[in-house]
Structure to design on (265 residues):
């Protein structure tokens, strides 16, 4: 005969077993849910790599001009000056000429050829800033090695939030062809383009150097082409990777622009 104490113990064991079963079921449900979320994020990130670079070459904070990133940098990536504190410099470059921007860096010299006929205001801004020694002593603060393949420079603060206090309009956006079904175009290795905040007409001083063919939306002004030696220097920096083993962040092989000059060719 079962006593009342034995019955209570039996009921307690059964209750405990039910609780354990429910915990296990909840654990499995959570695991399945997390798996689905992870898979969804992977799809989103893959799409981001193809569509974005806002190299996000878009900025997270108001007034920053990042290159797009693979992940929403609200990085880039994405990837300063959403509010202009000073006017854009007066146009003084020869709009029929070609210019060369020479970046003397501690990792090798980089020469960028710029066509003022196609991007007059962009070239003019770089000539103005270089003449003011704006880029001298600045670091290339961002390297991306997955989804998009760019080295981003031009921020005097070195954190992706700096700019000259004015903005310039987008130019030459059709130069790389018509966007595909995914909304992107290919920025060939060696291309130099303007970073922005993700909004039209928000370019400032930050720019990115493409070291491997990269798909991005046609919303970044392509204004220059790197010479062979300069591209090799950027690729060497990229090969060393990102600090901490990440795929987006400060380059492990730090790059400082020691001096920047712009001259008519």
């Amino acid at each position: 005969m079962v006593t009342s104490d034995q019955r209570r113990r039996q009921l307690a064991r059964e209750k405990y077993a039910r609780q354990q079963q429910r915990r296990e079921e909840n654990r499995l449900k959570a695991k399945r849910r997390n798996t689905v979320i992870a898979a969804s994020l992977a799809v989103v990130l893959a799409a981001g790599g193809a569509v974005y670079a806002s190299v996000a070459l878009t900025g997270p904070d108001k007034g920053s001009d990042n290159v797009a990133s693979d992940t929403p940098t609200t990085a880039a990536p994405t990837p300063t000056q959403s509010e202009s504190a000073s006017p854009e410099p007066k146009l003084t470059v020869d709009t029929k000429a070609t210019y060369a921007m020479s970046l003397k860096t501690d990792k090798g010299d980089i020469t960028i050829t710029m066509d003022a006929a196609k991007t007059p205001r962009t070239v003019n801004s770089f000539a103005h800033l270089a003449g003011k020694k704006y880029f001298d002593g600045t670091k290339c603060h961002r390297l991306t090695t997955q989804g998009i393949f760019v080295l981003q420079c031009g921020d005097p603060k070195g954190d992706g939030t700096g700019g000259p206090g004015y903005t310039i309009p987008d130019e030459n956006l059709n130069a790389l062809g018509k966007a595909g079904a995914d909304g992107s175009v290919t920025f060939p290795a060696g291309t130099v383009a303007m970073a922005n905040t993700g909004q039209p007409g928000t370019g400032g001083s930050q720019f990115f150097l493409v070291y491997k063919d990269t798909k991005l939306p046609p919303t970044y002004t392509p204004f220059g082409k790197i010479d062979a030696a300069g591209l090799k220097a950027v690729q060497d920096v990229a090969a060393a990777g990102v600090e901490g083993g990440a795929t987006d962040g400060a380059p492990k092989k730090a790059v400082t622009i020691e001096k920047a000059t712009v001259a008519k060719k």
In short: DSSP finds three helices and twelve strands in the chain. Helices lie at 4-51, 120-131, 228-240.
